[in-house]
């Protein structure tokens, strides 16, 4: 049996490579840093857990949430195909542009979800698997139903962030404090409100055509809510810092406040579809984030 000529194999290989790139784009690598929230509880506690498995279990948890989020993005893009095709930026997504077929998108969602559950099952006990399964369920409900309900979709979006943090606490067997959960919840709601505010400003009068819930939001009306959530987040963080008895933790409140104020200002000045990008694209904010991290970690050094 003779081997096929290179010219016959080239299109197939090119197609496989193009499909692989499309799958990777659908998994949203730029969003993967969100999953580092899994490390929030161990960092706040200054420990990776009560046994030697802590670092390995946390690595499994980050990887599991990364795969679970990728599954959620696939489901979201499948549910929003028609709207994404009319969106000025989202129409270039692989499923909306036709680089991936609907059948391929469904297979990707299933593979990512099953891989995430498999990694979660490798973490001792059933608690982390339960948290991850809850995240997958919330993600699916959000894409299919909850994202169309004003207010509810903000809470669902914020809950996805909180579940990451809770997942890290469960994986490392570190019980999260009330202050920790409060700050995570308020901060997540603040980011969610900023995201919707930027989208409403960016899309203007046509916002509701791309996301029906945006028709119930107004960038100017969301601003007071953002300010309230920002203030509550900082006060909650200060309450936690005072409770630790560490002067460094109390001091870390200042760069945190500046970073959040800067972020809120940039949301109004430079509205973008992915407000998360602002966290890593502004030098002043990056400097404040670095100062916060140094002050936060100082008691552990």
CATH superfamily of the largest domain: UbiA prenyltransferase
The quaternary structure here is: single chain
CATH structural class of the largest domain = Mainly Alpha
Indicate the low-confidence ranges by residue numbers: none
- Mean pLDDT across all amino acids: 85
CATH architectural arrangement of the largest domain: Orthogonal Bundle
The CATH topology of the largest domain turns out to be Tetracycline Repressor, domain 2
Q: Supply the helix-strand structural class.
A: mainly alpha
Fraction of helical residues: over 70%
How many helices in DSSP terms?
A: 15
The portion of residues forming beta strands comes to under 5%
**Biggest sheet: strands, sense, closure?**
none
What does the overall shape look like? globular
* Domain unit count: 2
SSE order, as H and E?
HHHHHHHHHHHHHHH
Radius of gyration over all CA atoms, rounded: 21 Å
- Can you count the beta strands? 0
Your description of this structure?
Helix content is 72%, strand content 0%. The protein is mainly α. It has two domains: 25-174, UbiA prenyltransferase (Tetracycline Repressor, domain 2), CATH 1.10.357.140; 177-301. Helix 6 packs antiparallel against helix 7 (127-144) and helix 9 runs antiparallel to helix 11 (219-244). The longest helix has 26 residues, at 54-79. The model has no long low-confidence stretch (mean pLDDT 85).
